[in-house]
Design a protein that fits this description.
Layout (H helix, E strand, L loop, with lengths): L2 H11 L3 H4 L4 E2 L10 H14 L9 H20 L8 E4 L2 H16 L5 E5 L8 H10 L2 E5 L9 H9 L3 E7 L11 H10 L3 E5 L11 H4 L3 E5 L10 E5 L1 H6 L10 E4 L4 E3 L13 H17 L1 H19 L5 E4 L8 E6 L4 H10 L2 E2 L1 E3 L4 H6 L5 E5 L6 H23 L1
Parallel strand pairs: 1-13, 3-4, 3-5, 5-6, 6-7
Antiparallel strand pairs: 2-8, 7-8, 9-10, 11-12, 12-15, 14-15
Helix pairs in contact: 3-11, 4-11, 5-6, 12-15, 13-15
The chain binds pyridoxal-5'-phosphate (PLP).
Pyridoxal-5'-phosphate binds next to helix 5.
Length: about 400
């Protein structure tokens, strides 16, 4: 590990009041990340001194609030290298983004003859909206299989595409259960070769990997602020302007219109067409501050440091007898799921909590994946740059103790 990187992230840990105030080790950042003071301050400053509505009023406070809100959108557009801020739609989060996209896409593009391809490793958020779209349009939902290591099978994807009529492919950029990072630009090129659109669930990628919508080549991308040091209640749906222009709004209300008569309406320009109602203003400002914070640390540096931490976690976990890693494909995001024969994940996580270690257990919102792996639950440790090598040592030492206890109880 490069010494300067280690020092930079040890120092960054001090920016997180909740991490500094706790004696416990937090290893559940894939569920939600902690917030740096800069994000908390940006939001409380807005509430304390700048609070007003956006887009519709002419008094100065509202104009300033509108500027802050629009600045946040511009920061996000630069963060993901969108062609224009109009392609950045504010939503409630990844789940909301995918639901909005699938619903609208279904109305414009899906027919009973259409096929929708979704990978076996998807979070329920990138499966259920497609089940709903398939049910309402009559389209067929089909699975893209994974390899035993947990990679998406590109051969199987090509074979499925070559059968024809695939309208949309939906895959995750980084799996929340397996950790696999999927080769999005290759998948995008393949989908486009067969005339299909590609939606990517970026919930687990946005906090960890440099994002470039032009280089990725996908058509739509979804992510949540709360997993990337920002607040809850806001996320992003990015899609190409030409695609957004061809999609209808699925939710109506204030701000998203051009003109309204009693019987019909016309729509506002992008992005407002997809943002009805008073938006999450303070949350957008908080997300903008999170993006500033991550940029100042540098996402490539975060990626390098977290990759080192993650390899250390995996190698330390392997020292525990009878522990099986779940998800070993490369490249990987900073998380590792595992399974220990004879020790239930809920017991492991409960006992680890008593040792001051917070990890996630259960089906991780991936029930079809777990069924495919013949498992009912997993334990997952997930990392962020505010974690340290010491956090991992503490987790593994506690896990050794917990496993001994659980396996001893079982033998008796
Ligand atoms: C891969 C993935 N997709 C989607 C989601 C849903 O994100 P949210 O609950 O913020 O909408 C998550 C959350 O854990 C996730 O890990």
């Amino acid at each position: 590990m490069k010494h300067h990187l280690h020092q930079r992230f040890l120092k960054a840990r001090e920016d997180f009041p909740a991490i500094m105030a706790s004696q416990s080790v937090y290893l559940d950042s894939a569920a939600t990340s902690h917030k740096p003071s800069a994000v908390i301050k940006a939001m409380s400053d807005f509430y304390e001194t700048g609070y007003a509505t956006v887009n519709r009023a002419v008094y100065r406070k509202a104009l300033l609030a509108t500027d802050l809100y629009n600045n946040a959108r511009e920061k996000i557009a630069r963060f993901i290298n969108a062609s224009s801020p109009s392609e950045v739609i504010f939503t409630k989060g990844t789940t909301d983004s995918i639901n909005i996209f699938a619903d609208s896409f279904s109305r414009s593009f899906l027919k009973p003859s259409s096929r929708i391809l979704v990978s076996e490793m998807e979070h329920h958020s990138n499966l259920i909206p497609w089940q709903i779209a398939a049910a309402s349009s009559g389209a067929h939902l089909e699975r893209i299989p994974i390899t035993p290591e947990g990679a998406l099978s590109l051969d199987a994807l090509r074979e499925l595409l070559s059968l024809g009529n695939v309208t949309v492919v939906a895959v995750t950029h980084c799996s929340n259960a397996l950790g696999t990072i999927n080769p999005i630009s290759i998948i995008a090129a393949m989908a486009h070769e067969y005339g299909a659109y590609l939606l990517v669930d970026g919930a687990q990628a946005a906090p960890h990997i440099p994002l470039d919508m032009q280089a990725l080549g996908c058509d739509a991308y979804a992510f949540s602020a709360h997993k990337m040091c920002g607040p809850t209640g806001i996320g992003v749906l990015w899609a190409r302007e030409s695609l957004l222009d061809s999609l209808p709004p699925t939710r109506g209300g204030g701000d998203m219109i051009d003109t309204v008569t009693f019987s019909s309406s016309t729509w506002a320009e992008l992005p407002l067409k997809f943002e009805p109602g008073t938006p999450p203003i303070a949350e957008a400002i908080g997300l903008g501050a999170a993006v500033d914070y991550l940029n100042a640390l540098s996402i490539p540096a975060i990626h390098e440091y977290e990759t080192e931490l993650s390899f250390y976690l995996t190698s330390r976990l392997l020292s525990i007898p009878s522990l099986q890693l779940v998800g070993t494909a490369l490249p990987r995001g900073p998380l590792q799921s595992f399974h220990i024969k004879g020790a239930h994940p809920l017991d492991i996580a409960t006992l680890l909590d008593l040792e001051g270690i917070a990890v996630r257990s259960g089906h991780l919102c991936c029930q079809p994946l777990l069924a495919r792996l013949s498992l009912t639950a997993l334990t997952r440790a997930s990392l962020a740059f505010y974690n340290t090598f010491d956090d991992i040592d503490r987790c593994v030492e506690a896990l050794e103790k917990v496993v001994k206890k659980l396996l001893y109880i079982q033998i008796r």
